[in-house]
Amino acid sequence: MQNKLLVHNDEVRKEMLDAIGLASTDELFKNIDAGIRLREDLDLPKGLSEIEAREKLLSLSKMNATTSDYAYFIGGGSYNKYSPACISYLTQRSEFLTAYTPYQPEISQGSLQSIYEYQTMICNITGMDLSNAGVYDGASACAESLLMSCRIKKKSKVLVASTINPEYLKVILTYAHAGNIEVDIIPANKTVLNIKSLEEIEEKDYASVLVQYPNYFGDIEDMEKISTITKNLDALFVVSADPSALAVLKQPSKYDADIVCGDIQTLGLPMVANAGYMATKTAYMRQIPGRIVGATVDRDGKTAYTLTQQAREQHIRRDKATSNICSNQALLTLSATIYLSYMGFDGLLELEENAIQKAQLLAKKFAEIQGFEVLNKNYLNEFVVKFPDNIKVDDFLKQAELKNIFAGINLETNFNNMRNCLLVSLTELNTLDEIYKYISLLKENI
């Protein structure tokens, strides 16, 4: 079939076939089963002008639901945070509009400086000694941290909390399968880890213990006790921490964390954008994957930045590499850096306290309705509500969506022990009107 919509004519096609020694297009595709080849023209619509195409795309985009149209109470790893206008203005500059680590770093001083500032801010937030230039997302950051711990400890088993993000766990298991690493799961009591089950472990063949802080259910684990148990197991303590939550929580370094990782989406990034961070102690500098930017001085005594501590192309040396990561999320880490510079610690703290107060208000309203139970004991802006048996979470979510409310996440989808439980999240963008609208909808369904 010679599709008339294609730009090549028969003469051009013959010239290309002659060049590769074939007589026909059918011969070119002879290895593809004839039964699955398209034998008729594609059913494509009439071509549109640029103006018509723009109008068509705009009409299609209006079919999407956005956070501007709905009251948004969904969290679970991606949060509706405000992004100041200065971020998009600065990151759209041509000097920054790239997602790659500079491959000729000595002539990319501006990009290197922005990465260096990002690393410094991550260290300030987590309390750790050094940070890399970023990795793909929070899930891969967790997986890479566990692989890193196995290299350091020369062990092939890890312990992972069952209270981490289920999407993170899937990525961890994929990495572990390829790396012949055994992953054991620490069970939970409702929304927190079962510390007793962790205490009962006697063998010291685990490289690390990974917990999320706050965990996927919004609860704050007993970090002090978990850290002590981990050290007694001769394992590294790996903490996946929400960086914005660290404005109010004790830094992971205070619990003697060895590796801290997570996602920087809560640092002013839109919900479609994720980037991972990793930070560690100086002793493990050579084992952290990805790139590290360092500061030095040039021959004239001026400040200069360069990739440091790692061989330039170590990331492509197969089994000798610390990781297959050879680039980072430089544009997104720049966005987070601008956000942190703009907000400052006081601004970050104010936003987190604002979200916490709203979450406490909504949780209190839930608890006041007979039959509902808030399962969390210690939480910030995210919590779990168990619904009474006569109200199904899925039914409520459908009713809420009809009222332009995205009410949360049905936990039963990923957790068998969370039957009829809803994960609810709030940020600084949730209004009091939205909260009272939410509660009114609840009362209508009783």
How would you describe this protein?
- The chain is an alpha/beta fold and 446 residues long.
- It is 35% helix and 15% strand.
- It has 12 helices and 17 strands.
- Strands 2-10-9-8-7-3-4 form a 7-stranded mixed beta sheet, with helices on both faces.
- Helix 4 packs antiparallel against helix 10 (330-367).
- The chain starts with 9 loop residues before the first helix and ends with a helix.
Strand content: 5-15%
Q: What's the overall geometry?
A: globular
Series of H and E elements: HHHEHHEHEHEEEHEHEEEEEHEEHEEEH
Quote the distance from N terminus to C terminus. Answer: 62 Å
Key descriptive features of the protein:
446 residues; alpha/beta; seven-stranded mixed β-sheet; four-stranded antiparallel β-sheet; 12 helices; 15% strand
Could you give a quick summary of the protein structure above?
This protein has 446 residues and is α/β, with parallel strands linked by helices. The chain has helices at 10-19, 25-28, 50-61, 85-91, 109-126, 138-153, 166-178, 195-199, 223-232, 330-367, 393-402, 432-445, and strands at residues 71-72, 130-131, 157-161, 182-186, 188-189, 192-193, 208-213, 236-241, 259-263, 276-280, 293-297, 303-307, 373-374, 382-386, 405-406, 409-410, 421-425. The longest helix is centred in the last third of the chain and has 38 residues, at 330-367.
